[in-house]
């Protein structure tokens, strides 16, 4: 390499070039070109390394970003489980989260138990335990309550079994809208008791929907939906909890799209023609009848009304009318039920009491409860008859 070219190359290497030039000049001519090439590579690589920005840890970068402000609305125990999942996924519990729960809204304390002691809702109790601010307006239309929400700078509201109508002024407050976790495959079973009506109807498939809340009940555009096949033996409490848990996972998964606006842009409208309603339960629905209902109808009522109001039948126990709550039932295989003798008498078959309904269909009763007594299995009930030789249904 010519001395002039060598000096030009060295000059382009930045600081320390003079010392490097002196060292190279002292080398034998045969080794000088190799030394120059090595010298050229080393400073350029170092410069490139110094210029490249170092990636900050993800948690640190997100922690420096202002968290989205979320308000949760819910009341019963099943909603408390959803709140717990939300809090566990939020700051400060999850430092790399994109949001924080700044407040919880629940229905006011209500009398509970035999002594009617004023008691906070399960959601309220959990929020207190986790140190989250709680608001308990008598109505979501309350002006002072809405003023307070407007002052919070809310990005999103999340509702899960809150139990109150949300007015237009409320819905206008969160910048990203209000998302509702609804335990049915909307538009099927809009209303207050979707899981109960799903089980009562004997649906083979159910699911959960995450949707934007609008003024019309459960009619907003759908963001996420998950289906869940049913076995046929699920009861309301377990299914309700399962669906809300699935729904909360779906909601958390779609939050990045909510913040970006993609969720609102892609949400699909519901088919109004396919809508069905799930009206609130009444105490009168507890009355079961072997005379008027089939085994399938009774079984589905037991599943649907397991938590409240229950399914009550009237039995004759040793000639005495006795009100009994059916707690757990099952349907026999179709071939086993074929040709059952028409009788009002109940018999014990293995671990179940066998009842034949007026239409000839057969119901197996596995657990039951006499009014004022504890819940027992069928064999314990049978053994407790104490020589009473007659057990039959009256209604």
TrEMBL record:
<comment type="similarity">
    <text>Belongs to the Fmt family.</text>
</comment>
<dbReference type="InterPro" id="IPR011034">
    <property type="entry name" value="Formyl_transferase-like_C_sf"/>
</dbReference>
<dbReference type="InterPro" id="IPR002376">
    <property type="entry name" value="Formyl_transf_N"/>
</dbReference>
<dbReference type="InterPro" id="IPR044135">
    <property type="entry name" value="Met-tRNA-FMT_C"/>
</dbReference>
<dbReference type="Pfam" id="PF00551">
    <property type="entry name" value="Formyl_trans_N"/>
</dbReference>
<keyword id="KW-0648">Protein biosynthesis</keyword>
<feature type="domain" description="Formyl transferase C-terminal">
    <location>
        <begin position="280"/>
        <end position="385"/>
    </location>
</feature>
<dbReference type="InterPro" id="IPR005794">
    <property type="entry name" value="Fmt"/>
</dbReference>
<protein>
    <recommendedName>
        <fullName>Methionyl-tRNA formyltransferase, mitochondrial</fullName>
        <ecNumber>2.1.2.9</ecNumber>
    </recommendedName>
</protein>
<feature type="domain" description="Formyl transferase N-terminal">
    <location>
        <begin position="80"/>
        <end position="235"/>
    </location>
</feature>
<dbReference type="InterPro" id="IPR041711">
    <property type="entry name" value="Met-tRNA-FMT_N"/>
</dbReference>
<dbReference type="GO" id="GO:0004479">
    <property type="term" value="F:methionyl-tRNA formyltransferase activity"/>
</dbReference>
<dbReference type="Pfam" id="PF02911">
    <property type="entry name" value="Formyl_trans_C"/>
</dbReference>
<dbReference type="InterPro" id="IPR036477">
    <property type="entry name" value="Formyl_transf_N_sf"/>
</dbReference>
<dbReference type="GO" id="GO:0005739">
    <property type="term" value="C:mitochondrion"/>
</dbReference>
<keyword id="KW-0808">Transferase</keyword>
<dbReference type="InterPro" id="IPR005793">
    <property type="entry name" value="Formyl_trans_C"/>
</dbReference>
